[in-house]
Fold Cytidylate kinase.
Amino acid sequence: MIKIRKKLLHIAIDGPVAAGKSIGASRLAKRLGILYVYTGAMYRAVAYLGLRNGLDLEKEAPLVKLLKKSKIELKKPSQKDRVCDVFLDGHDITRKLFSPRIHWGSSQVGVFSEVRKELVKIQKNISKNHSVVMEGRDITTVVLPQADLKIYMTASLKVRAKRRLKDLKNSGVKTSLADLMKKIEKRDKQDSKRKASPLKIAANAWILDTSKLTILEEVEAIVKKLLKMGLVE
């Protein structure tokens, strides 16, 4: 049984797509008995919100106006195949957020500074009263810059593409490894070069390469790091 040695423990994880952040962070949170915050789901929800209302995801102002009138919530998973439940204005939209269109749409809306500001407010408020494992692309640098442990999680491009390919096949989506590698490489450039909160390695972040790690090994590596830092016992 792991015991947290402080009132609030904040673990922040950043990294590129398919680095193992979501499933690893959710398993880690469960192991520690604390809240998991999947910020990527929030951006997917914004993309879904825009597309559902017929908006052009390349235009920021109408999207932000609609977002300010809406309510996005993350809740504990109600089903075993989920890492969390995502609600939009009181309705569970979780299963609608994992199509390729929503996936790439989340990257489109993520470049907008006003969209990010609105979602960062929600994320910061959650962390005020909860111990959290929070993951995304600007958590260590913008949302939780004072986190107890900051992790930059990564993996090789080919490994990440293979992981994404497996996920898409399980969802019934047909594509090729070569095509996914191109799309992920494009997404990486978009995330790292955007003006609003670009993806980057925080100065004091611990870099964890998951290319050769299973999810269990990934979680164990982080737990060992927490033990070494004296944050848990």
